[in-house]
Amino acid sequence: MNDRPKKEKAPEVGAPLWMASYGDLVTNLLCLFVLLFSFAILDLEKFEKIAYSMRSAFSGSSSLLDEHNGDTMISITPFDNMATETNEGEDSKEGTEGDNTGEGLSEAEKAELKKAQLGKAKVNIEKLIQDMGLSENIKVIEEGSIIIFRVDSIILFDTGKADLKDDAKPVITKIASALKELKTDIMVQGHADDRPINTAAFPSNWELSTKRATNVVKYMTETSGIEPKYLTATGNAEFKPIVPNDSEYNRQKNRRIDIIIAQ
């Protein structure tokens, strides 16, 4: 009888086969979650470009958007025939007619889209101001959650009158064109200095400041196509000065039109 102990079988080299399959499964799950996470991140700029491109394809209309150094910007001169060069050296035009309210988006996404559009309009209006040499007379001011486009009345109206000057009309037209696509509430406020007025047309600064704001609103709707439902005209007379009425220069600054938009 053979009493010699049996030799134990040598262990296999490397990991068990089930561990290799398990590792592949974990790796695939990791790739899946990374992919899902990437889908969840909203690239606002790309979304806007896609939305405008789709609208252009369906409407077949020309664009108020230009490509400038790779960034999509709302044009302040929509009737300008000069082409803007893109990074590839080609003209870029996309449609702008149609609704741009961001239907189908969540409230947070709509808010982000509105903020981006207002930011681009702000940049374009600032460029307009510089190009026209009006930096002393038009200011772009951010106060909390609002943006104010502040225009000195001296470039808009003659003293004691509410009719827009002919030279002022192109300025209002281009500002309104830049704001048209926002589809948001715009308040136009008229302001006067502390000197009283008493004429048949304007018994006080209330009537003068209100009529000036109203005429700006009417001209914006007539020339740029902004829907009247988004515009409000108000007059504040002399009661909301931005500087003391203690000099002619300060009074000139207090006589103004404020175009106010909530971000």
In spatial order, strands of the major sheet run: 3-4-7-5-6
Number of strands: 7
Q: State the separation between the terminal residues, measured CA to CA.
A: 97 Å
What's the gyration radius in Å?
30 Å
Return the structural class. Answer: alpha+beta
Helix content: 25-40%
Please tally the helical runs, counting DSSP H or I stretches of 4 or more residues: 6
3D structure, described in words:
- There is one protein chain.
- The chain has 263 residues and is α+β, with helices and mostly antiparallel strands.
- Strands 3-4-7-5-6 form a five-stranded mixed β-sheet.
- The protein is 39% helix and 15% strand.
- It has helices at residues 17-40, 44-59, 107-131, 169-179, 205-224, 248-254, and strands spanning 65-68, 71-74, 138-143, 146-152, 186-191, 231-235, 256-262.
- Mean pLDDT is 77; it is low at 61-99.
Task: Describe the SSE topology.
Layout: H1 17-40, H2 44-59, E1 65-68, E2 71-74, H3 107-131, E3 138-143, E4 146-152, H4 169-179, E5 186-191, H5 205-224, E6 231-235, H6 248-254, E7 256-262
Parallel strand pairs: 5-6
Antiparallel strand pairs: 1-2, 3-4, 4-7, 5-7
